Amino acid sequence: MDYDLKAIAQRIAALRAICELSAEHMGKTTGMSTEEYLEFETGSRDFSFTFLYKCAAAFGVDIVEIITGEAPHLKGYTIVREGGGLPIRRRAGFDYSHLAARFTGKLCEPFVVTAPYIEAQQNAPIEQGAHEGQEFNYILSGTMKFQIDGHIETLNPGDSVYYDSSRGHGMIACGGQPCVFISVVLKPNTDGQ
After folding, report:
1. What is the pLDDT of residues 122-175, one digit of tens each?
2. First-to-last CA distance in the chain?
3. Domain 5-68 sits in which CATH superfamily?
4. Fewer Cβ neighbours under 10 Å: the N or C end of the chain?
């Protein structure tokens, strides 16, 4: 799938209009100023997963609908063969492969993620994001440096981390090679339990 920044921006603007939400409201919802939000909505800036996730929640749509313009429609089950999935390229070269893009009514967003090894990131602060819900990451290959609430952990193949994703969190590949991991983003519980 070609990632069309302008088309995604147009879908976000249209969904905001349909939902009758102000740019100010969406700025607050996504944790930024109105001006910053409008830069994303006009396609002037690239999107983070956290931004897209928060927009989808605010509009009451699946994140896949924002990315592709098509609503998921499969019920019961969906299969993704090796190397398949909906490719999403995000910040600093992170590649996400959505493993349930065609399934409707998902309780979580499952991905295989490849984080590139970037030498310049190794001694810099780790870029962090936050979104409602919880998240689970399982390392398949490479090594990940994971940060949450000021704690930094190094994760190797077979290691996992489960966390409250409303807390600032971020990760980078370390050890000189990309890190490939499964990430399952669990949506917040909205039934009051």
Report:
1. 999 998 888 889 999 999 999 999 999 989 999 999 999 999 999 999 999 999
2. 38
3. lambda repressor-like DNA-binding domains (1.10.260.40)
4. C
